Structures are given as C-alpha cells and as structure tokens.
User: Which sequence fits this backbone?
C-alpha cells in the first residue's frame, strides 16, 4: 500500500504506518517525560519501578537512575507498608480497573507530601497484566490550605459559643425565675448581656473584614491621613479605662492610608494595650526616611515571644495569657489592613511590655 | 449548704453560673485558671466542680487529673462545661473520671438539673 502524504485524510480503516506510529510514540514519550506537575511512571506487575519522568523526580526527589528497579512501596509511610497498603492498592487496580485516592507519601528526603494518586493496570493484546501506570500529583499546598480553613471555622465557632453561652444561660434564667430578680441585679444582668452581645457583634464584623481582605474584594483609595486626627477620633471612641493613661507624641506626621481602616488598625492595638498592658500606654511616631513609623507600647507583661510571626494569624493567643476576652482576630486584621496600605506591622521582641510598630508610606 | 467550685476563664460565664446556682441555694466560688483552681482545691473540698476545658493558663484536663490523683479529692464529682461539642471529648472526659459533660451553650434548667443529680439540692 502506498504511503499517504497527508495522514489526516486517511480512512479510519487504513492502519497507521509504522513510521507515523514511531513519531506519535516518541511525541507522547517526550510529553510524559517533560510534564513536571505530574509524576507519571510505570510499574512491573510486582510493583518494581520501570520508568520515571521529570515530574516524578521533582515531586518525589529521586533521579531516574536511583529509583528505577526499586519497589514503589518506598514512597509509602512505614505504617502503610506494615499494613500491606502498596500491594493492596495494586490488587485493587488490577481487579477494579483503576485505583484512585489521596494519602500522605514520603519524598526521598523523608518529608511528607499529600498525594493524589491514580493507578491503572496495563494489559497486553491477550489480556495479560503486564504492569501498572501510576500518576501522582502533589496536593500538599491545597491540603494545608483546607486544614487552615477548617481550623479557622472551628475557632470562629468556638469564639462565638462563649458570648452565646452567656446569652442563652442568662436569658433562660431570667425567663424561668423573673421573681428572683430585683431591679438592682437586673441592671447588672443586662450589662452582662449587653457586653456579650457587643462581643458577638465585633467578632462577626471582624470575620467579615478578614473575609473581605482575603478575597481582595474591599476596594478603597489611599489618601494622606494625619496621625494626630486618627488618634483624636480614637480617644473619643475608645477612651482609656479608669486609671490607664495614653501618652501621645505624633508630631505632624501624615501617612498614606484609608482613614476608616487606619482607625481600626490603631483601635485594635490600643484595645490590646488596654486589656493586656499596665497603666501607661505610649503612642509615638517618628520619621524613618521612606516610611513613618508609629509605635503603640504598653508596660504590661509583654507578648509570648515564642509565637513569633504567628501572633498575627487568626485566633493565636500567647501562652500563659489569662485574659482571653476579644475575638482573637484583632492582630490578623491589623496586619491585613496595614499590608493593604503597602505597610508593615511588627512586634519588637526586645521591648519591655508589648511594643507594636506600624510602618506606613509618608502621606 | 452545698458549695460548688466553677473553673472558667470567662468572667461573664462565671457570673452567669453564679447567678443561676445561687438562685437555687448553692454557695458558689470560682477560679479563673488551672493554678487558681489547684490552690482553691487545697482548702476545704467543694461538693462539686464545674470545669471548663480551655483555660488561659492551661487545660481543664490538668485540673481533672490533679483531682483524681489527689486521693481524697478523687471523690469530688466533676462536671465538664465545654464548648467542644465532639463526642470524643465527652468520652475522654468520662474516661478520665468526670461525672458529666455539659456542652456550651446550655440553658439554666439543664445546668441546675445536672448539678442537683450529683449533689442533691442546694
């Protein structure tokens, strides 16, 4: 049969020429070898590794010459090997025509990664099992993100449960025993209820703020804001509790920010200082050339230094903290807002007491 | 009068528990953390302990273990008051010697009923 020059026009019934088959095989081999997001390799029927691609080397850490010829159970955690999982998975693939799943696997350097795995049995023309094709993807980042989300939701639910407990308990008590409540104690009960309702309100607002920040949905414009104006507003909205004093030295500095969010940043830092600090809180701004730095410092016991940068993650609290009021979201919002202005916020671990420094662009 | 010790780091929850139990004739004292609870338990035994699991300076499990290891204090009934709603936590609490487990939030009558089951009337 004459070879056709344009194979695209060939009739389905005409067999593809050996030359074209070779080109296709070679193209496919090159594609598999160079795919680097997927580990794609072949196993002999007993699980010995027969081939290896770039993605497999990238994900699992073994170069081809080191891994070909070894058994694929080397990728499984010891407890899975002890439980006979590798052989069972090959067995399942052979019986069902496919094995699919997600699980922890081990890289050459001993670290774990969360793998999405597909094992497919390969048969020859007579239907005999000649081995398996295995495709693995590294989904560790997705897995960790999912775990972070789950723990955020669990923590948020836990934080909401505390004020809810006070509301449910007090209201059910008042409903059941109105006669037990004289006017003086009723006022105190209502204060307690009001305080916990405020706490829920602020937690819900904080959750919404954080969600908007994470989705980058909050559109706003930066403008020059005089720091002194911000703190004038804050001293009215959040006056220091009895016996506490705020000393201010803000000069005439102006920063680039969105005023409402900037209020929230310093309100959260001030409230932290009111709650955890001693009687004196110092707020001072200075010029650092390309940025204006503002510190909020208290004279309390300071912040648990072991938390490091985790302090700014949602629901982190210092060890040994005996004060757990607040939503656990304040510092996460501070960092989110400051970064949305192109600035930074840090905790100065060398300071006595807690010293937070916010650096923002000059306005 | 039956004396109840409530261990919780949330002042308003302590306030609410005191209001509910005092209205039923119980005497109520409180501790805000593990350390304070252990100090108080060194004194006269309360008739019952209401114990939160998440405390500012540690976990309620430490207080429970301290009570159970203490010989005499091992007999004081402990009721866990916790926002952890999982059955596994409740099972652990019972295994480690707690007599009951109340999930937050709870209504006043269920708190009173549980306390009365273990120590009788206030």
Assistant:
């Amino acid at each position: 049969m004459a070879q056709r020059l344009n194979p695209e026009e060939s009739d389905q019934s005409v067999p593809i020429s050996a030359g074209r088959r070779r080109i296709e095989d070679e193209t496919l081999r090159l594609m598999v070898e160079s795919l680097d997001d997927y580990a794609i390799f072949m196993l002999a029927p007993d699980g010995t590794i027969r081939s290896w691609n770039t993605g497999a080397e990238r994900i699992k850490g073994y170069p081809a010459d080191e891994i070909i010829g070894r058994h694929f159970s080397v990728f499984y955690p010891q407890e899975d090997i002890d439980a006979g999982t590798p052989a069972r998975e090959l067995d399942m693939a052979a019986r069902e025509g496919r094995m699919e799943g997600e699980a922890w696997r081990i890289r050459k350097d001993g670290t774990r990664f969360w793998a999405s795995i597909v094992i497919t049995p390969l048969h020859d023309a007579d239907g005999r099992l000649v081995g398996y094709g295995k495709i693995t993807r590294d989904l560790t980042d997705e897995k960790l993100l999912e775990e972070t989300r789950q723990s955020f939701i669990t923590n948020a639910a836990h934080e909401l449960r505390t004020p809810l407990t006070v509301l449910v308990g007090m209201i059910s008590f008042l409903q059941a025993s109105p006669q037990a409540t004289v006017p003086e104690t009723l006022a105190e009960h209502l204060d307690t209820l009001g305080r916990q309702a405020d706490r829920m309100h602020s937690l819900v607002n904080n959750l919404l703020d954080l969600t908007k920040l994470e989705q980058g949905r909050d559109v706003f414009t930066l403008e020059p804001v005089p720091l002194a104006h911000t703190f004038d507003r804050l001293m009215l909205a959040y006056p220091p509790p009895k016996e506490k004093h705020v000393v201010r030295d803000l000069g005439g500095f102006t920063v680039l920010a969105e005023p409402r969010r900037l209020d929230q940043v310093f309100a959260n830092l001030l409230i932290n200082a009111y709650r955890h600090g001693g009687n004196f809180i110092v707020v001072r701004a200075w010029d650092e050339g390309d940025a204006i730095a503002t510190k909020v410092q208290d004279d309390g016991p300071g912040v648990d230094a072991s938390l490091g940068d985790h302090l700014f993650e949602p629901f982190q609290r210092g060890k040994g903290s005996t004060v757990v009021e607040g939503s656990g979201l304040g510092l996460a919002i501070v960092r989110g807002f400051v970064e949305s202005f192109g600035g930074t916020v840090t905790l100065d671990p060398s300071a006595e007491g807690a010293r937070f420094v916010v650096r923002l662009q000059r306005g | 009068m039956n004396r109840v010790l409530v261990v919780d780091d949330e002042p308003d929850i302590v306030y609410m528990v005191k209001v509910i139990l005092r209205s039923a004739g119980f005497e109520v004292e409180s501790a805000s953390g593990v350390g304070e609870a252990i100090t108080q338990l060194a004194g006269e035994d309360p008739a019952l302990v209401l114990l939160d699991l998440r405390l500012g300076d540690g976990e309620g499990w430490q207080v429970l273990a301290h009570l159970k290891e203490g010989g005499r204090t091992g007999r004081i009934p402990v009721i866990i008051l916790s926002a952890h709603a999982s059955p596994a936590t409740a099972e652990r609490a019972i295994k480690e010697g707690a007599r009951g487990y109340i999930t937050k939030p709870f209504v006043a009558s269920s708190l009173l009923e549980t306390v009365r089951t273990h120590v009788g009337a206030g």
Q: What stands out?
A: The mean pLDDT of chain B is 92. The helical segments of chain B are 11-23, 34-41, 60-69, 87-95, 108-119. The beta strands of chain B are 3-7, 27-31, 48-52, 54-55, 58-59, 78-82, 100-103. Chain B touches chain A at residues 9-10, 12-13, 15-17, 19-20, 23, 32-33, 54, 56-57, 83-84, 104-109, 111 (CB under 8 Å).
